[in-house]
Amino acid sequence: MRIGIAGIAGRMGRLLAEEIIAGGHALAGGTLREGSAKAPPAGVAILPDIAALFAVSDVVIDFTHAATAASHAAAAAAAGRALVLGSSGLDAAAEAAVAAAARHVPIVYAANFAPGVNLVLALAEKLAAALPPAHYDAEITEMHHRQKVDAPSGTAVAMGRAVARGRGTTLEQAGMESGRHGHVGPRATGAIGFATLRGGQVVGDHTLLFAGATEQIALTHRSFDRRVYATGAVRAAAWTEGRGAGLYDMMDVLGMR
Fold it and tell me: Do 2-109+226-253 and 115-223 come out as alike in CATH topology?
């Protein structure tokens, strides 16, 4: 497949380029973030904008920024090309725009492309279904490198949504408790708690706790190398070949639904 990379000069962009070549695919080219001073990988075609990148690609992988997700999804739909979207921190309007574009082309949109994380999400939903909120409080802690701009992380939010689904509700209906500070009152029953840590160069550390009065269950996933996200994203890109329009995630890519 001809795979393009949005933001090819960034840390993820460079890893994606390596994994595309290692997977036997053609690296169609990439775009640079506006104002970026980073040099792209040697010998890679740099396209002037996302539309030009889609024109030479079968699928584009995008880990750039939440602010570009809607316009990149629209460009995918206009070009009739697939999109693998790994940007986190999308607001409701951006997610709606991605879903609208997915009516025309295949889009794989995931909070995390590591296979292990997606297995944890599946387990989180099953555990939540078995552990009632009246007796087990769900708390999510996450830590990332100091440069990460969104909080809680997209993976942490995905964990919260998995818990909510298991309990037959949504994260918005269950309620998010995050950034506790001062006298905030007792914990609300059924709410899903989030604690965010930032520091150093931690790639990704997520733990979901089900805390009961007499026991505690913890699910933890730690990423030690960003390459795991690149490998998963390239796997998702290859999976889109011949796929019909739709909004997919890594559960689909892994054959878990």
Answer: no
User: 10 Å Cβ neighbour count for 227?
Assistant: 16
Q: Of 144, 145, 181, 221, which one is the catalytic site residue? A: 144
Q: Report pLDDT digits (tens) over 54-83.
A: 999 999 999 999 999 999 999 999 999 999
- Fold classification of 2-109+226-253 (topology level): Rossmann fold (3.40.50)
Domain 115-223: what homologous superfamily? Dihydrodipicolinate Reductase; domain 2 (3.30.360.10)
Domain ranges of the chain: 2-109+226-253, 115-223
Given the residues 148, 181, 183, 206, select the one marked as catalytic. Answer: 148
Annotation marks residue 104 as catalytic: no
The 10s digit of each residue's pLDDT in 101-153 is 999 999 999 989 999 999 999 999 999 999 999 999 999 999 999 999 999 99
Question: Using an 8 Å Cβ cutoff, are 192 and 177 in contact?
Answer: yes
Pairing relationship of beta strands 176-178 and 192-198 according to DSSP bridges: parallel
Q: Which two tokens stand for residue 204?
A: 């990704």
The verdict on whether 126 is a catalytic residue reads: no
